[in-house]
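Here comes just one.
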Amino acid sequence: MYVLISYALFYFIILYVAVHFVLFFFADADFSLLWASLLGRKPGASSGIGEELAYQLARCGSRLVLSARREDELKRVKRQCLECSNLRDEDILVLPLDLLERTTHEAKTKAVIQHFGWIDILINNGGRSQRSLFLEASVDVYQALMELNFLGTISLTKQVLPHMTKRGIGAVVTISSVLGIAGAPLATGYAASKHALQGFFNSLRTELYDHPRLLISTVCPGPVQSFIAHNAFTEDLHKPVAAAGDQTHKMPTSRCASLILAGIANGVKEMWIAQQPFLAFFYAWQYAPTLAWFLTNILSKKRVQNFKAGVDADSAYFVKPKAS
């Protein structure tokens, strides 16, 4: 009997591993997040990441605070949220906010508390990317990236988190990046800011051990269809990106947002979201760093060559350099 049980357990393990191995080739998120999205609690109906999250949360019936610098864009998103949901006008607060103006964050937080009474979830999604080589970029670009992506996020979290700890419940969800775990050319400052966020929130989570109902979650997306490439820093602080590049090979924003909401609903502390082959890089960096460095060096060389040749930086891994 013990032999039969041992054989059954052995074959079950083999089958389990084989199924996961096959599924991995079609996966677009880490297995913990995928299982949560398939079998866990459902956040509601699914349809830039921040805008799409607002639409999907509105469909779930969540009351919203929409914050960014451009008030006209916030009002446009609010109208769309009202049209696609049963929310009322007072259920959505438009609150213009600049992450760089840290002295205003306390007053902005108080305005939200005054309007709604409390904050259940803070989604840190503000920031800019980078498209420039370190040897050509101004130090001012690196300061701007850290001020916006890192310190701005920390400042807002600093104001909101005490309200959550007082209630003993809440969630702080921060949109990081695959470059918060790995490295890549043309984004040294961006990667530094995202590594900083990963380190900060991983450490913050350990300090909140006596608040088990307070979720600190970081989201690490790979390439996603959004406007982040349009607003990327170049080598000069005031020089715009020449061309944002093709977005068709990237993950649809609606799918990314749907996975994020599933992760929040199921308390996932870190989410890896990317289509293949980018998801494989997440696992390689985590479990086989030597292999990851080998592959990264090959692909990084090609990407830098393509960038210098004027080829679309976002699709440089898939395009041959132009002839000089």
Q: What stands out?
A: The chain has ten helices and six strands. Confidence is low (pLDDT under 50) at residues 318-324. The CA atoms of residues 108 and 114 lie 10 Å apart. Residues 139-167 form the longest helix (29 residues).
